[in-house]
Amino acid sequence: MRCGTVDLGLAKYECLGCEYNSKPVFVCFTCKSRFYHKCGKKYTDDRSEKQQE
User: Fold this and answer.
1) How far is Cα 36 from Cα 4, in angstroms, rounded to an integer?
2) Pick the residue with more confidence: 26 or 45?
């Protein structure tokens, strides 16, 4: 599965106000599919949390 890899793209985050040690952080996109075990668990957890509210 290509989920969480650069194949699905990524976002670059960096602090523009930091003068020292401004190292960018790269975060890979996920598929957000409930059929993939890793993303599906997050989907299930988020849904159950919303139902408890």
Assistant:
1) 11
2) 26
Residue 38 lies in a domain: yes
Say what the pLDDT of residue 12 is. 92
Range of the domain at 8: 1-14+25-53
Q: What share of the chain is helix, strand, coil (3-state, %, to 5)?
A: 35, 15, 50
Q: Count the domains in the chain.
A: 1
Distance CA 19, CA 40 (A): 39
Task: Report if residue 46 sits inside a domain.
Answer: yes
Q: Mean pLDDT, to the nearest integer, of 43-49?
A: 81
